[in-house]
């Protein structure tokens, strides 16, 4: 089965200020290795144009467009002929693009929600990139949140088929580097107002009392008014290939979860997988479903407050630190690589295509399907 896949997403060319790019790159590279033809369509916007860390991938295609009107002029035939068309979350003019894509696609269509908790929290208030009315139009809804969430999307919003498709970590890129430890703990993440209190409690507060330890925060968009302790090093932005050595210089790394993700649960971030793949033990805030990703007793260190963090940094034996790191990396290799995600997507495609064949005589449009032979 070789599929022609088109993805319309937020960004794949720049990882500046978003986690979408690394998620898409890992998935697409895996799909390309498995023989699928993939084209990614991305709006050409100034803030990503000035921070591009991917321009011309070797095994798949990126095409930039300038405006909503540019899409139908240039890409209607591409959408029509694809076996699978995926529209991602946070795409500018996403609702109009979803209407256009689902109206012209003859293959399977999917909405890939890399921001499922934010989407579900905002659907009733209105979002720029998805409406509740659009969800049943897609053949499948691919959710970054697992557990009971896909079932909720089917029951509450009428998705004909909702399935979990977590992010992943490419072990050929995200791997341990034999580097001297420079920081006791670090954090990689763009500024988020609802995440900032946790960052202050779980990193800045321990740093303020552990003056002989060094800490680091890498990420863009942090306000100028934040006062950083003197032992907290700031890095404005790291391109993707700098992530593994960054993690490898930390004794521990901190995972923080946005409020909507914590509330919904079962929503691991891409940074969680990438840090674990680099062999850096992860200290994480607590949220429902964390135990379905990593074993809290042996693969990750959940914490509730600054006291928990301080205890880990000062008292955790080195042999246990290394064991936790090794077991978490093994978990990534066993369950959370891009190849796992590509295989999942293939199985979902086949399931949706089979469902479409069964239901086609009863659908008003009775579209001709551009689906690969099973």
Structure description:
- By secondary structure, the protein is an alpha/beta fold.
- The chain has two domains: 4-168 and 337-362, Glycogen Phosphorylase B (Rossmann fold); 183-335, 3-Layer(aba) Sandwich (Rossmann fold), CATH 3.40.50.
- It contains 13 helices and 13 strands.
- The chain has helices at residues 20-33, 46-49, 70-81, 94-104, 116-122, 149-157, 196-209, 243-248, 259-264, 270-277, 306-315, 318-335, 338-359, and strands at residues 4-8, 37-43, 61-65, 84-88, 108-113, 140-143, 162-164, 183-188, 215-218, 232-235, 250-255, 282-285, 301-303.
- A seven-stranded parallel β-sheet has the order 3-2-1-4-5-6-7, with helices on both faces. A six-stranded parallel β-sheet has the order 10-9-8-11-12-13, sandwiched between helices.
- Helix 1 crosses helix 13 (338-359).
- The chain is globular, with a radius of gyration of 21 Å.
- The mean pLDDT is 95.
């Amino acid at each position: 089965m070789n599929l022609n896949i088109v993805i319309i997403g937020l960004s794949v060319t720049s990882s500046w200020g978003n986690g979408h790019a690394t998620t898409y790159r890992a998935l697409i590279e895996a799909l390309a290795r498995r023989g699928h033809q993939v084209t990614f369509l991305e709006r050409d916007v100034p803030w990503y144009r000035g921070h591009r860390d991917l321009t011309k991938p070797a095994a798949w295609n990126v095409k930039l467009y300038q405006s909503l009107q540019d899409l139908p002029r240039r890409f209607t035939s591409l959408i029509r002929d694809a076996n699978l068309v995926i529209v991602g979350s946070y795409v500018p003019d996403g609702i109009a693009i979803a209407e256009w894509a689902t109206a012209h696609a003859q293959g399977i269509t999917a909405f890939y929600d890399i921001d499922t908790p934010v989407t579900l929290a905002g659907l009733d208030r209105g979002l720029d990139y998805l409406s509740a009315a659009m969800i049943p139009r897609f053949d499948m809804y691919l959710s970054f949140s697992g557990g009971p969430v896909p079932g909720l999307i089917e029951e509450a919003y009428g998705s004909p088929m909702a399935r979990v498709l977590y992010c992943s970590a490419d072990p050929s890129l995200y791997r341990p580097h034999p580097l001297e430890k420079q920081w006791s703990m670090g954090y990689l993440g763009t500024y988020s107002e609802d995440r900032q209190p946790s960052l202050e409690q779980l990193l800045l507060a321990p740093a303020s009392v552990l003056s002989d330890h060094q800490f680091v925060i890498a990420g863009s968009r942090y306000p100028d008014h934040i006062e950083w302790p003197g032992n907290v090093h700031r890095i404005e932005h790291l391109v993707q290939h700098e992530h593994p050595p960054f993690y490898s210089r930390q004794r521990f790394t901190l995972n923080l979860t946005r409020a909507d993700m914590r509330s919904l649960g079962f929503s691991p971030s891409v940074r969680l997988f990438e840090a674990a793949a680099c062999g850096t033990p992860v200290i994480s805030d607590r949220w429902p479903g964390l135990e379905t990703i990593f074993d809290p007793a042996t693969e990750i260190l959940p914490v509730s407050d600054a006291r928990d963090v301080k205890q880990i940094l000062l008292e955790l034996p080195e042999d246990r630190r290394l064991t936790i790191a090794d077991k978490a990396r093994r978990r990534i290799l066993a369950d959370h690589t891009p190849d796992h995600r590509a295989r999942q997507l293939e199985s979902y495609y086949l399931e949706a295509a089979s469902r479409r064949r069964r239901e086609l005589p009863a659908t008003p449009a009775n579209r001709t399907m551009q689906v690969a032979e099973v």
